[in-house]
Amino acid sequence: MDPQQLKATIAAAKAGTDDAFGRLLEAYGPRLYGYFFRATTNHHDAEDLLGEMTLKLVRQLKNYDDRGRFEPWLFRIAANMVRDRIRRAKVRPKAISLSAEDKYGRRLVDSFGSDGDPVDSGLVAQERMQHLRRALDTLEETTREMVLLRYFGELSFKELAEMFHCPLGTVLAKVHRGLKAMRNVMGESDASI
Amino acid sequence: MQVYDADYERIGRWLDGEAVELTAAERAVADEIRRDELLLDAPIDGRGQHEAMARARRRLSAELGRPRRRKLVLAALTGVEAAAVAALLVMVWTFHVVSNGNGPPSIMSLETFVQVTGQTDGPEEMDLIEDELDRLRAEMLVELPEDDSDAALEDLQEQLDELWLDGPPDIWAES
């Protein structure tokens, strides 16, 4: 969506046009899902967060002060939601049995290798996500958020600098160091297989 | 190679797509960052994304489908009536969470309702009730099982509609 279209769509949504919210969801939903999925490495969490985000968009858009910075505004909310969920998960860690059922009444053990995909490709993807998760977990919180927002939220370094209230050079220095640290962790993981 | 914040600033602007002339050393750092970005190339499950979007669309349409008259009706209520509405909505909410086996409503919701029901007579309190209803609805949307959420939401919406349309129930006269 180009900036003019975006501005008009936001104005229409604020004026109560339902279709406009739909257009915003179609434009940003996949990116938000990608961000949530990478940040939580869990489809169900990502799906929940996207649903929650949709409601927040409807309820909070009235508070958006249109200065052409919609994406940073949107992803700041998304980042806060992820931060909150991660903190809550740390406070309330859960031991899960594979024979247990998830909140949809499905046995967790049945969820592996489902969707008709070959088990191997599912496992490879899962392993890849675990490596990524391990590497992201080693980063300090701000750096982790910057990396996630840059590469999965697709924010520019300039937008990140504004969001985190620090110079652009500082943002890139943190991201550079974070990526290096991740490279080391992921290199070790690959070597240990 | 030592890179300083000023160098990073230039590299960052270049990576953002600005026309910046980088030195060889700066270009080497930019290339390294771009190489490392490939580490993050974890696959997204297309089907998962499709499902998540479908669910988000349903959420959006449920949210936008709320009767807008609710606010008008709520604003016209007196303090006592609003207190009764709040109490009834807690009952509806409780019925839903119990029947869906999702546990009790949050303590904060009930506390807020208790506070509101004790002092409701102005527009601010009406807003508070309205916000709390929104919050309960959001909580419900997030907590309910995917397959049941639409039906349960419609059910809840129906009960709320009936509540608004039928006028004050008997309980209001008693309060």
If you had to describe this structure to a student in words, what would you say it looks like?
The complex is a heterodimer of chains A (193) and B (175). Chain A is built from eight helices and no strands. In chain A, helix 1 packs across helix 2 and helix 5 crosses helix 8. Helices cover 71% and strands 0% of the residues of chain A. The longest helix of chain A has 25 residues. Chain A has two domains: 94 residues, Rna Polymerase Sigma Factor, Chain: A (Orthogonal Bundle); 76 residues, Arc Repressor Mutant, subunit A (Orthogonal Bundle), CATH 1.10.10.10. Chain A has 193 residues and is an all-alpha fold. About 8% of the residues of chain A have low confidence. Chain A is globular. With 175 residues, chain B is an all-alpha fold. Chain B folds into two domains: 36 residues, no CATH class; 107 residues. Chain B is 76% helix and 0% strand. Chain B has nine helices and no strands. In chain B, helix 3 runs parallel beside helix 8, helix 5 packs parallel to helix 7 and helix 5 packs antiparallel against helix 8. The C terminus of chain B is likely disordered. Chains A and B meet through helix 2, helix 3, helix 5, helix 7 and helix 8 of A and helix 1, helix 2, helix 3 and helix 7 of B.
Helix and strand content put the structural class of chain A at: mainly alpha
For this structure, what is the CATH homologous superfamily of the largest domain in chain A?
RNA polymerase sigma factor, region 2, helix turn helix motif
Radius of gyration of chain B: 26 Å
Give the overall shape of chain A, derived from the CA principal axes: globular
The largest contact between protein chains, plus residue counts on each side, is: A-B, 52 and 45 residues
Distance between the termini of chain A: 43 Å
Largest sheet of chain A: none
* Mean pLDDT, all residues of chain B: 66
Which percent range fits the helix content of chain B?
over 70%
Transmembrane segments (chain B): 72-95
Keywords (chain B): Membrane, Transmembrane, Transmembrane helix
Protein name (chain A): RNA polymerase sigma-70 region 2 domain-containing protein
Keywords (chain A): DNA-binding, Sigma factor, Transcription, Transcription regulation
